[in-house]
Amino acid sequence: MRNKMRKRTARKLLTVILSLALAGTLAACGETAKTPNQGQLVDPPKAESGSKPGESQAKRTTYPLKVKDGTGKEFVFEKAPERIASTSPSETEMLFALGLGDKVVGVSDYCDYPAEAKSKPKLGSITKPNEEAIIAAGADLALTGVSMKTPTVEKLRELKVNLFQVQPKTVDDVLANLLMMGEIFDRQAEAEKLVEHMKADRQKIVDAVKGLKPEEKKKVFIEFNPGWTVGSGEFLSELIETAGGINVYASEKGYVKLSEEKVIAENPKVILYPNNLIDDKSKKTLDQIIRERSGWDQIDAVKEGKLAGIDKDTTSRPGPRIVEGMKEIAKGIYPELVQ
To answer: Residue 117: which of 137, 133, 103 has the closest Cα?
Structure first.
């Protein structure tokens, strides 16, 4: 009996010694024993300081930030502006598209998109806002666009309005302005996502018309306001060209008072005009005016009924909906190619 007990004790002692030896060997090799079907316990990743859930990878603006506006004036932002005024529908649309609607403290009388913009305090016209209203808004930064002339910009700055003006001439300028706004207001992720979406939509239009042969491209006349058209160097002409059309006024620069004789001589295949635009003097719609002009019944576009109404706002505002305007124009010129 005693011999059996001695053998059992010896076996237990041997088991303990072997276990200790194995543990020592694993430790020396830098390994840790794991329980079957269980992973190692590790510390959870730490979120970046000041970031919100899901934002750890978002690009953030580093302040102070130096930026020049379209007039060449340098601005230094110590932080993202908290109170923003806008005297331009395009810039108002940019602010809301970047999720800054709650920071907008005033807009122009013509800022009507998105719907929330209509309820914001009004600051007057696009070209000459109400000086008292814009000062009373107490904005950290006021934005304005291409419609405001230099004397008005300078006057507001003399009144200590911190006025930032953008002057886009091309669609790429619009995209660059969106990215710049994203940086100024610390909305870079939102701006980059929006710009990528706009570029993708533009590419779809380019792809839809890229198969056109030179002789298949249609000559286009656009009348954006009674008696007015656009030549080269402006984004509205670029929209026509990117959409595969040939602007009959491309040989002239900027916004041009149209010549009825020139349009007849150019004989456009398509005429574009803003939907529902009524002339103040005649009280007629613009397409009525076009059809009733003397000699214009001989223009191919009029004879063949190729007058295409387009949305006035998306095609005239150099903001986040500008590519929608490009699509409107493309559909007006090539409805069989662009859906």
So the answer is: 103
In a domain, 45, yes or no: no
Is 22 part of a structural domain of the chain? no
Query: Quick one: 160 and 215 in the same domain?
Result: no
Residue 55 lies in a domain: no
Residue 128 confidence (pLDDT) above 90: yes
What is the reported pLDDT for 42? Answer: 32
Considering the domain architecture, whether residues 221 and 327 belong to the same structural domain is answered as yes
Mean of per-residue pLDDT scores for the chain? 87
Tell me the per-residue pLDDT of 247-265, one tens digit each, with 9 for 90 and over. 999 999 999 999 999 999 9
Range of the domain at 216: 211-333
CATH number (domain holding residue 136): 3.40.50.1980
pLDDT digits (tens, 9 = 90+) for 14-68: 444 334 343 343 333 343 333 333 333 333 333 333 344 444 467 899 999 999 9
Q: Is the pLDDT of residue 239 over 50?
A: yes
Q: Is the domain of 135 the same as that of 237?
A: no
Report if residue 290 sits inside a domain: yes
Domain final residue, candidates 168, 200, 225? 168
Among residues 266, 262, 313, 305, the alpha carbon closest in space to that of 287 is found at: 305
pLDDT tens column, 162-200: 999 999 999 999 999 999 999 999 999 999 999 999 999
